[in-house]
Amino acid sequence: MATEGKGVLLKADPIANTFRDEIKSALTSSPRPPKLVGILATNSAPSKFYSEFTRKQCDALGVDFVLRKVGAAADESLAPGEGVEEAIIEANEDDSVDGIMVYYPIFGAQQDHYLQQVWPIAIIVSPYKDVEGLHFKFHYNLYHKSEVVGRPLAALLANDGARVFSVDIDSIQDCLAISDVVVSAVPNAEYKVKTAWLKDGCVCVNVAADKNFEADVREKASLYLPTIGKVTIMMLLRNLLRLQQYRQIANAPSS
């Protein structure tokens, strides 16, 4: 933590370390290292960085990580996304694989558009191997823009008793002024949440790869978390262990 500014700058490391210790402990009782398959279909620099970051974290913990490159990631002459479905189906059918994740965006900045138009990609991932939690069992009609972060996060927060705002450009300032927690995940380096609009003492969490808050955010925020990458990976690996355990239970002979 840093003391510069009014609010506290919270690093992701101590949070991630708590879960890292939990994962290390769980791995000692695992019959074999869990296997995670990452599917990369683009030459997008952030996606490539995320996949390598995933590999490093898995290697450090003794988790088996396999990166399967398809489409433009495997051959620049191929279209982005080409071969994704086939790679997912292959991983689904491989009994040695415990978890699957697909690196988005596949078509550059059209991340949400792609996911909404070919949503079966997320459904194809077996619910027994979906470390990202994108698979759904029941179908509902819901109007919301982001299927990757916005809607799932809103549901999680609402489930824990929070009042969640869905806002547009005409109401965001009013909502920020009364919000105790502000989580931003806009994939645009030019986008900034104005510090002047924030409520004094609020908590600000930046989920995007780019900094969504202004440099003086801690003048208003009591706590500011500028990046969550390491925590994200720990949550993926935590889910991976749970999926491995569920499969063991499901495959255990009945007494």
From TrEMBL:
The Tetrahydrofolate dehydrogenase/cyclohydrolase catalytic domain, residue ranges: 10-132
Gene3D superfamilies for the chain: Leucine Dehydrogenase, chain A, domain 1 (3.40.50.10860), NAD(P)-binding Rossmann-like Domain (3.40.50.720)
- A molecular function (GO) term: methylenetetrahydrofolate dehydrogenase (NAD+) activity
Provide the Gene Ontology terms for cellular component. Answer: cytosol
Q: Which InterPro entries match?
A: Aminoacid_DH-like_N_sf, NAD(P)-bd_dom_sf, THF_DH/CycHdrlase_cat_dom, THF_DH/CycHdrlase_NAD-bd_dom
What PANTHER family is this protein classified in? C-1-TETRAHYDROFOLATE SYNTHASE, CYTOPLASMIC-RELATED, METHYLENETETRAHYDROFOLATE DEHYDROGENASE [NAD(+)]
Name of the featured protein: Tetrahydrofolate dehydrogenase/cyclohydrolase catalytic domain-containing protein
Can you name the source organism? Pycnoporus cinnabarinus (Cinnabar-red polypore)
